[in-house]
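WARN no homologs supplied; continuing
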Amino acid sequence: RRPVWGTCAGLILLAEEANRSKDTGQDLIGGLDVRVQRNYFGRQVESFEAELELPFLSGRGAFHSVFIRAPVVEKILPSALTAQEPEGSVHGTVTAPPRKGTSAEVEILGRLPGRARALKDKTTTAEELGEDGDIVAVKQGNVFGTAFHPELTGDARIHAWWLEEVLKAVANAEARGTSHDA
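OK structure emitted
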């Protein structure tokens, strides 16, 4: 389980399931026990930017993020270690091929607060409606996925954090004597 980070379409590739895929859509490689919904926010013209609070960045302020035809994680799935049948709840759901799973749990690292903010009155917040917000960043073991594009912001904090995570993974693998798996 080498460290891997997928942004936007990369998050889709790393998901175990993806909804709203074309009949001739992409294959998934898996690695994250999540179901994503492609193009969740709409077409290219509905792309947007938002400020995200990302606790894994240790309170260094909001992260300006860029969403371009972005997916969201719509569901955390049971671990791939437990045999599961894809739910296929939406037409066009594709599933990654079976793989050797990990015992790591999926961690939600970031949410986009409030679909409710798009309501016509513009005054109701997601919190007032009991929504936690859409899941836009997850990590499972050495696999990390973001629905947004940090590389388009000029803010290197997520990249620096990820490099630290990779170094930790390499050090842990070397300590176990399995550096080829890092």
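Helices lie at 9-14, 157-176.
OK
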